[in-house]
Queue: 2 jobs
Job 1
Amino acid sequence: MAEAYPEALRTRVVLAYEAGEGSYATIAAQFQLGTATVKRWLAQQRREGHVRPRAKAGGTPSVIAPAELETLVVVLGDPTAGELTAAYNRPRRGRARVHVSSMKRALHRHDYVVKKKRRRPSEGARPAVQAQRRRFLRRIRAIAVDHLVFLDESGVHAAMSRSHTWVKRGTEYIDPVPMNRGARC
């Protein structure tokens, strides 16, 4: 939501109108405001004796409970906001259902952010794989960089997963993906 106009501008508008510098429309055009805004400020000046901006009201409270949100994120793994919304709405009907934008606001309110996932092969924790990795790194470091060729291979395989997910602020999501990707599609 936009910030309120400064009190100094509001006061200048009210004083200009009260000094007879023009009609609502003329004053509004002069200060590049809407006519209704000028009328509102003048009414507030007459009613309250000042033109200070009112405090923001706060809006409608969320119906999505933090515990339920936490459960959905854990159960679904690395869901998108759309998938979280669908899972939340599944047992609900009518006005109890929420829109995906409401789900995103609830996620942010409860300190969830979208972060890029870190991928690690699920087989990488095995001692034999760690030993192979060390041997490979020793061999590859012995090769001069100008002798290396880099290829860009595009395609789809079994180890593909989403690149981003919702996680609590300050945490990371490590995505265990299979090392053996299978055939490319």
Note: Helices lie at 7-18, 24-30, 35-48, 66-76, 81-89, 100-109, 127-141.
Job 2
Amino acid sequence: MGQTHKGAGNMVIVIVDDDGSFRNSIRRLVQSFGYGTMAFKSARQFLASESSRSCACLILDVHMPHIDGFQVAEQVLLRNCKLPIILQSGNVTESDIQRAQALRVLLLQKPVHPEKLQNTLKRLCRHIRKKKEPRPRRALPIRPARRRSVRVVGE
């Protein structure tokens, strides 16, 4: 089961990385930005959970055993096509860039600069928040009903 940590807001960022030290450092960094986090040590563990349905954003390692980050992204996008996904890799290849573009997900080179990650999460979560917030309804003015005259044609 993943580790859950509440943040200041109600936005939860899910982190999936098989490298424990990197996973924990990203988790702490994301928490320092004010987000809640949920961390998983494997793609299988994450996919077995229902976390993709309730999180604001998903941060995935590209190179993980058994199932890579691209395969996880494909499965998640089938369930929740609106979920923003950030893939991270220490060794980004041209093939990785093409796959990320095809999936319409972000691909960042490890190590990610903290400010770049913070700005990326802010932008993605602002987009999510706008979709979730109900728009205020305006009261429409009441207009008197129009009188319509009925003409009978052909009599």
Note: The chain has one domain: 3-132.
